[in-house]
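Example 3.2
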Amino acid sequence: MSVSSAEWLGLLRREYLDDFVRQGGAAVKFAVVDDPAEAARVLGTVAHQAEEAGYLVLGVDAARVRVHMMQEVFFEVARQVPWRQLARRAVRGYYVESGYRVPDDDLSAEAVAALNGVDAAMLNAELRQRIHDMLGRGDELAKDFRVAMLWLCLAEIWKGRSREDSAAIIEWLQGDLRLISAVKQYLIFRKIGRHNARAMLSSLSAWCRMVGLPGVVLTLDIRRLGVAKRAEVPDGVFYTKAGVLDAYEVLRQLIDATDDLRGMLCVVLARPELFDDDRRGVAIYKALYERVWPDVRLRQRDNPLSALATITGAAA
């Protein structure tokens, strides 16, 4: 049996976007959709609902991105993140919390100091300490991510150096930096790879909450994993069986990371073949299959709140 898209999307909004995730929870939901047009509508509606609710909305398509490599997933995400905008939200928040009036278009310490009649050097030192204290709270942010966000924030308060100081940091986050030596002056000494990409993704959701957003909604379209023949892939990424297994491992890691994530909803869009095919389907990777396939299936209908839902376009 299946669940109508209207019912599933409504529950996703009420139970997760408006409640659980907004309060700091995290979840990975699998939606199995057969019809391509309906799949596109489901993805579009999830993104629209999340944007309306104030979330940072990100999307990864396995047809274009090698999702069997966690760092490639993060790099694709990082290319969609408005890093400077988030840094400006953080800096503006620090000013407001301290009782300062803030210009509309200039967050530099000099501009804010002039508007409030205080010494720019003292304000600069005060703000830098506040940013250090805030970013150093707890263990929600990975060390390298914390350092990167510090420099992005400082670039906003150091007048005239925003582009210079943030460009290399953003290239590093997006995986486009050729030489790690370009960011060593910022105390970052390693590139983002398979070993730390998941921690970076977790840090991103925590950072969004720190700057005032409810969290992150990530849509992950894995329908391409079901294509078994290279000849059927005219362009984009083709996945060998080994690549499919690695992609399932990435998904397994995301599910197991939900206890550490803060404010993240990941919606994974799949085709029915990924649960029916005994050669490339999820069943070949038991560690993932056992996490998403329901232990108890009702005869009457699917449970729309389970980790896995088969969705149709029929009315509720």
